[in-house]
Target: CD7 protein
Amino acid sequence: LLRTHVQPGTVLHVSELNTSRVSPAFASRLEYSREGNGLVITLHNLQEKDSDNYVCAEEVTNSPLLSAKGTMVLVKEVERARKKGSWDFYALIVVVALLFCALVCLTLYHVDVKKYFQKKKPNVVYEDMSYNSRRSTLVR
Model:
């Protein structure tokens, strides 16, 4: 894996004997593994200074030429954007919570809450239907 434009140099060199050399700048941020006849290279924690054209090259036996395909990598400042975005999210949550509290308070102000929590007196009518009470009304 080579860098070709901004800071030309070798990032990773893997020989057929499975020996590898990793650039000190990528020592703790590069992983690779073999998949069939190819390599899978993963770069972690990219920084702005890592922006460059990266070329995976294969040495052609008995030739000074390389067989290569390149990829342009452009790294922007992600951390600042992420932090700003998270503050926007927290501000939105606080505003929604305040609006919800205001709605609840307004609702409670306009509704007579006491009547919903008071014990209702049973609406009972008692009528004495015994023989004695009917007889006394008949006598009169």
